[in-house]
């Protein structure tokens, strides 16, 4: 293994802090060089003969870009690096078995890239990575932000590194000490002892924002409000009234169904009702298009009014929105003007569309799950959120596809919002979560100033994380 590029000053600070511990977290915003920093830490362990293999887990759609980024920074001999998509571990017994054999036979340095994808400790992917991590001594998690919803996001990420850091063997013991739930909704309403958590993870954490180390062009935000039709509004109120009757016990799943149904209506879908009952197939509502012609959708009309004439990424929540917009824009502006980028396409098709977007195509219409991670799209400066979801992490990630090293122009981010609907609640929720993220960053910085390499106290001298 040979490194081909030099570290930047702030990357050297990160390496200086984490080179003395076997596990760590690089919470560095997109575009600040997490990959290069991680490669430096790996290289030092490799030269010291502490590891003989690298296992790099990352989002499936980001694999090509991360592989290219690794190749740009380092020459890695064949057989030294294994890469696998995190989502693959949810569905492939073969992949799980193969990686378990690999980590049992090799001294692997485990990298979990975009670790917020494993924030749910009970998800199959999280359980699979935890099993792998138990066979690896050296581990590193990479992400732009430590949380997307609440401090509960920390547990699985840090359990992968070492349960002793936070000091909890189970999520329930963690929750008992740090999470307060509403007795009716069973939703987290408050987090407790946050400064204690920050003091535990600080010795193993390097956190950096782009504003602290890079001189990038500014980002400007604008929200465009539009009104849904009178017929949509009547259907919206009807479905809201019907579903409110199901909220007698305020169970979380009924709240989620209500929000999902209302958002579907604002996006141009009709919830199918038979008599006084909403028709459900499996766990999903049955829907039909609200408008005979998709161009009659007020959301689509609002997009056409503010559509940039330069290259732009348009993010949609629903797959049907992506393909409807591609059809509309290609009919209006010329075939090949707009290209889809979503999970219904093969990896090869997505890569082909990405190359065309880098070339002559004007619009890439995508969902955040596919295009929100790993892509370098600095040649574009416009982002339009046609429809949003509740996830702050994918929102931040998707914005950073264009706002990163190499961007030379001001980035313009525009949101479409249906006035007086669930859209406004989603927008407000994302803003509050961003404020929570800033609070957490300030707590980590405070710990960094008041503690100098504070080590977690151990009652058992053999329970050591520090080499």
How does this model look, in words?
- With 467 residues, this protein is an alpha/beta fold.
- The protein is built from 18 helices and 22 strands.
- It has helices at 9-18, 34-47, 63-73, 93-105, 124-133, 154-161, 163-166, 171-178, 194-201, 210-213, 230-244, 252-266, 298-306, 319-333, 347-358, 368-371, 392-399, 422-450, and strands at 2-3, 23-28, 53-58, 74-75, 81-85, 108-113, 138-143, 179-181, 188-191, 205-208, 219-226, 269-271, 273-274, 277-278, 280-281, 284-285, 287-289, 312-315, 338-341, 363-366, 382-385, 411-418.
- The strands form seven sheets. Strands 5-3-6-7-2-10 form a six-stranded parallel β-sheet, with helices on both faces.
- Strand 21, helix 17 and strand 22 form a beta-alpha-beta unit.
- Helix 4 runs parallel beside helix 5 (124-133), helix 9 crosses helix 18 (422-450) and helix 11 (230-244) runs antiparallel to helix 12 (252-266).
- The two termini are 23 Å apart.
Summarize the helices and strands and which ones pair or pack.
Layout (H helix, E strand, L loop, with lengths): L1 E2 L5 H10 L4 E6 L5 H14 L5 E6 L4 H11 E2 L5 E5 L7 H13 L2 E6 L10 H10 L4 E6 L10 H8 L1 H4 L4 H8 E3 L6 E4 L2 H8 L3 E4 L1 H4 L5 E8 L3 H15 L7 H15 L2 E3 L1 E2 L2 E2 L1 E2 L2 E2 L1 E3 L8 H9 L5 E4 L3 H15 L4 E4 L5 H12 L4 E4 L1 H4 L10 E4 L6 H8 L11 E8 L3 H29 L17
Helix pairs in contact: 1-2, 4-5, 5-6, 9-18, 11-12
């Amino acid at each position: 293994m040979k490194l081909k590029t030099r570290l930047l000053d702030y990357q050297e600070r990160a390496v200086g802090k984490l080179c003395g511990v076997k596990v760590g977290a690089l919470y560095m915003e997109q575009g600040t060089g997490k990959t290069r920093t991680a490669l430096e830490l790996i290289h030092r362990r490799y030269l010291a003969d502490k590891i003989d293999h690298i296992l790099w887990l990352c989002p499936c759609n980001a694999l090509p870009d991360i592989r290219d980024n690794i190749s740009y920074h380092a020459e890695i001999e064949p057989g030294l690096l294994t890469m696998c998509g995190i989502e693959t571990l949810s569905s492939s017994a073969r992949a799980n078995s193969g990686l378990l054999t690999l980590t049992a036979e090799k001294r692997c340095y485990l990298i979990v890239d975009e670790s917020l994808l494993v924030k749910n400790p009970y998800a199959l992917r999280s359980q699979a990575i935890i099993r792998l991590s138990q066979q690896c001594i050296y581990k590193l998690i990479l992400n732009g932000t430590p949380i997307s919803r609440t401090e509960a996001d920390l547990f699985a990420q840090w359990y992968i590194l070492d349960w002793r850091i936070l000091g909890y063997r189970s999520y329930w013991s963690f929750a008992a000490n740090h999470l307060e739930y509403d007795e009716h909704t069973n939703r987290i309403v408050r987090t407790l002892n946050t400064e204690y958590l920050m003091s535990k993870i600080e010795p193993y954490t390097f956190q950096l924002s782009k504003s602290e180390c890079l001189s990038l062009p500014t980002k400007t935000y604008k929200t465009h409000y539009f009104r849904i039709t009178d017929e949509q509004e009547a259907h919206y109120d009807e479905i809201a009234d019907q579903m409110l009757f199901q909220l007698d016990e305020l169970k979380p799943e009924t709240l989620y169904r209500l929000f999902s149904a209302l958002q579907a209506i604002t996006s141009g879908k009709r919830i199918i009702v038979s008599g006084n009952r909403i028709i459900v197939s499996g766990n999903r509502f049955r829907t039909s298009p609200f408008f005979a012609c998709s161009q009659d959708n007020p959301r689509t009309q609002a997009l056409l009014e503010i559509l940039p004439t330069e290259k732009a990424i348009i993010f949609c929540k629903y797959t049907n929105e992506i393909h409807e917009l591609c059809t509309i824009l290609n009919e209006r502006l010329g075939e090949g003007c707009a290209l889809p980028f979503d999970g219904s396409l093969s990896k090869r098709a997505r890569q082909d569309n990405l190359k065309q977007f880098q070339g002559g195509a004007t619009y890439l219409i995508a969902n955040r799950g596919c295009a929100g991670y790993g892509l370098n799209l600095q040649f574009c400066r416009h982002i339009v959120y046609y429809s949003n979801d509740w996830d702050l992490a994918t929102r931040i990630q998707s914005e950073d596809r264009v706002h990163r090293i190499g961007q030379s122009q001001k980035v313009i981010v525009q949101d479409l919002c249906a006035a007086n609907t669930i859209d406004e609640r989603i927008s407000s929720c994302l803003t509050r979560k961003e404020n929570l993220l800033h609070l957490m960053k300030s707590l980590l910085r405070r710990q960094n100033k008041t503690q100098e390499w504070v080590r977690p106290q151990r009652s058992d001298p053999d329970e050591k994380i520090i080499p």
